[in-house]
Automatic annotation (TrEMBL):
It comes from Arachis hypogaea. Pfam families: ADH_N, ADH_zinc_N_2. It comes from the Eukaryota. This is Enoyl reductase (ER) domain-containing protein. InterPro entries: ADH-like_N (IPR013154), AOR-like (IPR044626), ER (IPR020843), GroES-like_sf (IPR011032), NAD(P)-bd_dom_sf (IPR036291), Quin_OxRdtase/zeta-crystal_CS (IPR002364).
């Protein structure tokens, strides 16, 4: 069950579980039928602002399946900043050829398995970040499509207590949060300050730091209207960045996890011997610029915390947006005002 920063929380939760059950029934039925040779997907054929280049195409070739991959009927897809940065050509030298359907995060149902796949079978509900290395030849057909493919090592079985919408919101963000904390060897008894604590990654860093790593104290920054969400996430010291400069606070921290790009200020907020890690690089040493490596084993490791509800997905109140509103979803993501994750669902 996720945390929704919305007065309609309970109504939406009930609705999301109805959608989840309905989606599972439909997909399981469809998985026994013939898989189409061409699918619907949002694609672009040139680099530029994704709101301008993205077009709906109803005749995209079905992704070809490799021996170590599974074919997934997409139920829900979450959007990430890397999607629109990729669309701008930030890593065009290592990108896959056009046409490109964006989308790294997926939740859906396996409809076909490659000959070397051992972990999954047709009918399994799965989730994951489909690109092991985000900027190194990411898949041409991502999750903002009816079907996508992924290697079995980047996927995990979807926790049964999570809807497809909730599951889709997690992979890239929770893996980034976890691997970043591991990178700085965060451990029980340490303190942490999370910059951007209500965002997609930040909202999970705050939870993992306390629930998984045993943080002694968790502080986080957010705007005034999001401070209550921070408290619900277990943050001990919510900081309103519109009223306070975190780097001027008397308290210093063992680790500052920067999700917003303020490493220079972050270095002023650490204790002697403390560390700053950022996902909003590039960053100058001693700050560490970190990028995730998609890994289904991390999702498996965190499954008990998701099953128990100790760690919860955080969805933006606008989520989910329907497949037809993909352009609007990206435009909203680019405002940097989302709380938690922006998810697209249903997908035809």
């Amino acid at each position: 069950m996720s945390l929704y920063h919305s007065p309609y929380c309970l109504q939406f939760l009930s609705f999301s579980y109805i959608l989840n059950i309905s989606s599972s029934i439909k997909i399981m039925a469809a998985s026994t039928a013939s898989i189409p040779s061409h699918i619907k997907a949002w694609v672009y054929n040139e680099y530029g602002n994704i709101e301008e280049t993205l077009k709906l195409d109803s005749n995209v070739a079905l992704p070809q399946l490799k021996d170590d991959q599974v074919l997934i009927k997409v139920v829900a897809a979450a959007l990430n900043p890397v999607d629109y940065k990729r669309a701008l050509g930030f890593f065009k030298d290592s990108d896959s050829p056009f046409p490109t359907a964006p989308g790294y995060d997926v939740a859906g149902v396996v409809v076909k398995v490659g000959s070397e796949v051992k972990k999954f079978k047709v009918g399994d509900e799965v989730y994951g970040d489909i690109n092991e290395y985000a900027v190194n030849n990411p898949k041409a057909i991502g999750s903002v499509a009816e079907y996508t493919s992924a290697e079995e090592n980047v996927l995990a079985h979807k926790p049964s207590n999570l809807s497809f919408i909730e599951a889709a919101s997690l992979p890239a963000a929770i893996i980034t949060a976890y691997q970043g904390l591991e990178r700085v060897q965060f451990s029980s008894g340490k303190s942490i300050l999370v910059l951007g604590g209500a965002g997609g990654v930040g909202s999970l860093v705050t939870q993992l730091a306390k629930q998984v790593f045993g943080a002694a104290k968790v502080a986080a920054t957010a705007s005034t209207g999001k401070l209550e969400l921070l408290r619900k996430l277990g943050v001990d010291l919510p900081i309103d960045y519109t009223k306070e400069n975190f780097e001027e606070l008397p308290q210093k921290f063992d680790v500052v996890y920067d999700t917003v790009g303020q490493t220079d200020k972050a270095l002023k907020a650490i204790k002697e011997g403390g560390q700053v890690i950022t996902i909003a690089g590039p960053a100058s040493p001693p700050a560490i610029w970190f990028f995730l490596h998609s890994d289904g084993a991390v999702l498996d490791k965190l499954k008990p915390y998701l099953d128990s509800g100790k760690v919860k997905p955080v969805l933006d109140p606008k989520s989910p947006l329907p497949f037809s509103k993909a352009i609007e979803a990206f435009a909203y993501l680019k405002t940097n005002r989302a709380t938690g994750k922006v998810v697209i669902h249903p997908i035809p």
